[in-house]
Every structure is written in structure tokens, then in C-alpha cells.
Design goal:
mainly alpha; single chain; 69% helix
Amino acid sequence: MGGAKGAGEGNAALAALVNEAGCSHAALARKVNQLGLAQGDVTRYDKASVTRWLQGMTPKGRSPQYIAEAKSGFLGRPVTPADLGFAEQAQRPVVARALTYREDVGETLHTLAELGSTDISRRSLLGAVPFVASALMDPQRRWLLWLLEDEHAPRLAAVAGGGPVDQVEAMIEMFDLMDNRFGGGGVRASIVHYLSTQLTPMLQQRTVPPQQRRLLCTYAAKLAAMAGWCSYDTADYGLAERYMIQALRLCAEGGDRVLGGQILAGMSHLATSLGNPSEGVALARAGVATAQRAGSPLGLMRLHAMAARGYAVLGDSQQATSSLVAAGEALDASRGPDEESPWVHFLDHHYLEAEAALVHRDLDEAAQAEQLAAASVDANWDRRRQAISRSVLATSYLQQRRLDEAVDTASTALELLAGVHSERSVQALRDFRARLAPYRNEPIVREFERKARPILGASVA
């Protein structure tokens, strides 16, 4: 339960920032509810709630962090709960450190090892780890500075295979296969355990030759990014963010620009999906600059698609369309996955179709979304991607008032999620379900809600 500071004391810090932002109490409450819902917290704050906060009440749970995130968006600069007059919630030092892009790679390795150890052995000690959108901006800036400096750095000779390099490469291939088949929730613990207890200690010992160490840092970055994606798939958004930040730092140590661009794409996806499209666009644009320098047309295609996703959520149709055109041009420039880095082998025209369908959905361009989502459904055997594309297809039907087709398609997506741990797929279906609100009294919708509740949870009234 939240408590008041004292009768009549009030919260002057919060009042000052509310006045500075110029947003209404109702607008602040709505944004806090939206941020919470994006992370699985259902709150029903209203303008009266904001009045109580101003009078000195501290809201419970992670709400102070959501209020700070909302204020960050309104003001255009980072704001912490302490800035708002709320006491900082106690959190383990590793949770705070993992939000930082460290110059000393030794500190990065130590942080990653401790984060992974705590994650696997005593997850309860991590508590509720919040997603902090503003924390993604400093890693982006530091990465771009590294990118400029790296252009003038000497290049190391190619790395010979063998030894630990081959072993780690084989483990990455195995984890990737398991993730694709069963979703991130089924493989996350194994990835984190291997990264924190095998690969990170190997790099901390500094016993491998410099060339191999450089490649192993890249592999550690790949595994940390995979841990981030898998944490996303288990709705552990704060952990996902922290793994991705550490992955980006290790990627700089490894000097792999293609992978760096893909990590930035993941950060962009996370930010946009959790209600922070402006940050998502900024991260995608940093990735575009990276991929252009890396000579990776497929990687560049994905990053333009991520920018389009952010612009679409912002309602900027012109920029979203321009980004999709740029993505198509990058795809046309590629000579195929076999001619590019292994980090982008999964990218092809089917991937772009699926992402473009999401963009058109968010722009309420139903006919284009239907065409692209249907093509993606036909092309993808992966159950996770199938579920997402069918959810988008269902939404396109709904946008055209084809209710029966919409619900039937969404029901198939529900069936595909059985045994697959993928929060991204669940999010797409929740988006569809929220759009069913005007039809909630229809029998077919009530039946869908009954079937969906075990997988999607209770809907918000």
C-alpha cells in the first residue's frame, strides 16, 4: 500500500514538474496506465489519483517508475522517481549497474556475470525490475561515439577456428534453434546459465589470444542479446533491457558492427513495443548509421523497418512510408543471406512483409496490412511468427468490419501459442483483443474472450 508523507505536506517536487510539463492530470494518469499495461501491470489511475499524489501519497508497486517515465516523455528529458519526490525503491546494485554502458569492459563482464547468476539462482532477489526507456539513450550515444572512433582503429587479422571459438559458436546455433522452435521462455535459462558461468568467466581470465578474445566478446554479445530477447518473451522487460545494454558494450569490444546494428534493432523494438516510439525511432536511426558503415544491406533493411514501426505508432505516415521504402531498397541491394554476416541470415523479404504489415496496421491502412500479413502467414512455418502474423491479419479484418473472419483468424493464432513461450506473440493478440471492445456483446466475441483468457489474461474493461 502507498502511504502519505504527512497531513497537508504535499509533494512540491511532483507539483513543480506537473506544472512545467503543462499536461492535465487526466493525461498523466492515462499515460501511467498505458506504461503499466505495456509491462503487464493493470492500473486504473485517473485525475483524482494524480491529486492524491500531489497531496503526498506515494503510489504502490512500480507506479513511481511509470510516473517518472511519463514525465520523461512529456518533458523530453530523463526524470527519476526521486526527482518527483518519491523515495527510491531499494534495488540490488547489479540491477542499477546493468543499465549502464561501462567504458571498462572488465566492469561489463562482472556486471553480466552477477546479473546472470542472480537471474538464474535467486530470481526473487531481483524483484520487479522496471523497464526504463530513458536509460537506452546513453548506450546509444556511447555506441555512436565508439563507431566514429573505430573507423580509425587498426584491424586485427582474421581469427582461426578451433578451441573455445568453435564450441561457443555451436552453442549459439543450438540456442537459436531451440528459441525458434519453442520460444524464448523455453531456452532463456540455459542461455543465461551458459553465458554467466562459462563464457563470461573465460573472458575474465584473459587467457585466450587477442584475436580469439575479440571474437569471443562478439559471441558473448550475441548471447547477451539473445538473453534479452528471451527475457522479452517471458515479459521480463526490465531484464531484457539490461541484457541488451550489456550486449551492446561487449559488441563494441568485439568490433562487430553488423551485430551492433542488430542489437540496436532489438532495443528499438523493445522501446516501441513498450510505448516509447520516440526512443524506438532514435535507436533505429543509430542502427541505420551502424549498418551503413557495416556494409550490411539486410541489417539495414531491418533497421529501416524498426524506424517505420516507431513512426507508425507516432502516427507519422510520411516518415513510416519513407522508412519502408528505404527498407525495400536495402533488401534489393542485398545479394542474399549467404553473402552477409550470419547475424542477419534470418532476414529476407518475408521478414519485411511481416514488419510492414504491422506498420500498416498501426497506420490503420487495413487493405495493405491484410495483403502483407496474409503473405507472411503463408510463408512462415515458425509458430511464433505465424501467431503474430495471424493476429495482424485478424486486426486488418476487424479494421474492415469483417468480424467473423477476424475472430476466426485470431482463434487460430491462439491455438498456435499452445506450448510456445513468446510474449511478443501474446502482445499482438492482446492488441487485437483490445480492438474488440466495441463488439464485446457479440456472442462470437464473448466466446473468443473465454478461450483467450487463459493465455492472454483478463482483459481491461
